[in-house]
Write a structure and sequence with these properties.
Six copies of one chain form a homohexamer. By secondary structure, chain A is mainly alpha-helical. Chains in contact: A-B, A-C, A-D, A-E, A-F, B-C, B-D, B-E, B-F, C-D, C-E, C-F, D-E, D-F, E-F. Chains A and E meet through helix 7 and helix 9 of A and helix 7 and helix 9 of E.
């Protein structure tokens, strides 16, 4: 289910975000990031259940509402890093996935896997990117790669056919 | 509930610790550290339940009782690093919190959050320290910052008012 | 319970592995590695239950069967790194344990603890190696050392007597 | 010698910085950060020579002038993280030092050492903070602690008396 | 100057590499990797001088000739990870750059910057990728980003116009 | 040249060290550690020149003489971790080497390479250990492995024959 606008409203100052453009992605519920706007076709995809999602969304709201301007700005900057620029969002989400994998952060890997699926990367392309992470990061990343494969079972477009 | 002396007794050689000065902090049950002595006012605070606490205390006892002198000495040295010196304990616990956050160790973050609350740091001060960690460590620390906020819900003095 | 040949068959191309030489170690179920051949005495040891083991074996099969040659080759290379060479397997498993501990990967620590027990390292030797990791890696490794002690309770040869 | 306004002018949009408030700290030349305003007494301190400083300042100018808004904003956010808030700048520079030490970044350690000296931390207090980093981060941080001691020889207020 | 075949010959078993297809990239001299074949247009580009390059090539030869099959195979696997597959080489080199940046390895960053230039990425695209690394990895990556900018001054196609 | 007793005397409390048992290893000059006693045959080996060695020894003296008891104790504990225990010194130095390699600390790798040579490990055994580090730590360790090979050229017993 898509994030309800009510649960996201008020997270950001009104001059930057409004409830409507926050109604965008399930990925935002996982890793404290506000993903870019999706078109209708993307929005209609149904994401499989990711555990403890509502607790995370709740914590993100608490963090963004805690009154620390620096944290709020960093969350916004993190969001903007994946918006279209010289590189497109699709490419940058794959960069985010590999960065997360070599730094061995499961929550971050999950976030970027969901986003990569939404951006249209195919399963074999994502696996090829995970191989780069595996070679750069070594066998210490294997447990995270395994959990990435487990997550892909839940993500439309990245499931094994 | 405060750690019972019985559960902590025998963890250290008698020349260094006794049951009384180990009856000090709930934080010790979480991260294998022996926090400094607290005065009566601090002791009377009741810490909210932290999950799997007794299992951890049990493992700490097993480690300190395993007969390896080097490990026992390192645990003591780790404890002493936060005792008053040129810097006070309060300052050093905040340093420990930021170090734990940039190194992305949830158990260590929880330990130092509990200790920061005990030492009298306020919620907005702890959040300001977490912002330093977030900027130094980047978005890869976000899931840990989120879990830190979840922990603060359980810690007197760090709860959202 | 030992991995059944059926569950492992087909993970590798026939020129490299067959079902028989995959029927080797419980450790392979934990961390995506193919441990070396064990003799009968070793095979007859019964490993204590490690949680979520079958899910991990299932994911390893999925990864090795996903069709990416690079990943399959890296898994094989990782396996071969611990086979007898200028250094024996026993020594190399202890190196793997310390590397896993300073890099703070619980799944990897568990894998190498199981393998160290199988290779004949004694509990006090493994603890001495963990002390090296603790000194090199600092107090940030304490939660992982604690979980290593918890794991040793389940591993024959590494249990506290 | 303090950074000349000319070399720093134009790095930031006019609404945020001007040449005057950039004429502040030698530390800014080292790590790409814009340290907070210093009063006259602080400004009059003469910093010892830090090698390759002008090359670094030159690169910072190139980065901030490269036209990427996200990078410019992150540099500003990094700067703001150490400005007075619930915690004072003095405390936050010490947090930055310990974070840099456990993450083992020599350039970052140097930057925060210079800033800690400017903020009035004494040598024994800085050493006490480095001890926390040493215990948290382990012996792998020793070479960085050694280089921190070498740097302190060049920093007024942190020199051995 | 391109690596001379003589200096590279004999590094790999004949069934895998020959002198001709090793005469490919200056990047191979920096980080121990064998980059993919380049067409004539790419080969004719002249790379600026990178310091200590010949010493590195010399060490790579020593490593690949040391007789350890596992190391030789890992070097080959590392090379193959960037060859065309579901993802193209161009995309994978950018993934390698970001992975290197968040893991803060200057030599690896240099290698992938050279390769990104060879693959046709533009300066503003590479900077956009470095911004992702900066946001994911935090301010601790700033010194490495600065050195990346210094390196780009020497790399055709990535120089500031 | 071996460290002169005069330069080391007074670094530690008399009950723990004396000038004589500090006159032991060139490795101590590199990484702030006090290596174990060597027999005459080992002492008579002449180590090749390692750059900036005397500056490092000088800094170690400054750190140990700075008056911080915690730092002094940690240096001693680090030293003791490699003394004979359930595992011998020879084994533990190899563990230290692999831990240093996967954590990518060149100074620490150099220290343990020197010590491994002193303890009698052969070149091909050290290379086999470095291969474990390479597989565990991935291609990001390659520049460090390369520098390890460069160091071995200067260390008796580890030179290529």
């Amino acid at each position: 289910m898509a994030a309800s606008p009510a649960s996201l409203a008020g997270r950001f100052p009104s001059e930057r975000f409004n409830a409507q453009n926050c109604r965008r992605s399930n990925a935002s519920l996982i890793c404290g990031k506000i993903p870019p706007r999706r078109n209708h076709a993307q929005r209609s995809r149904r994401l499989p259940k990711i555990s403890r999602r509502s607790q995370r969304a709740d914590l993100n709201e608490e963090i963004l509402g805690c009154g620390h301007l620096g944290i709020k700005r960093f969350f916004a900057l993190d969001h903007q890093a994946y918006e279209p620029g010289p590189l497109g969002t699709k490419t940058k989400e794959l960069l985010g996935l590999v960065a997360s994998a070599v730094l061995r952060c499961d929550d971050c890997i999950t976030y970027h896997l969901v986003r990569c699926g939404e951006e249209g990367w195919k399963r074999d392309e994502v696996i090829d990117a995970l191989n780069v992470a595996l070679i750069v990061g070594g066998s210490i990343t294997i447990p995270h790669v395994r959990r990435a494969f487990a997550r892909m079972r839940e993500i439309d477009g990245l499931k094994s056919s």
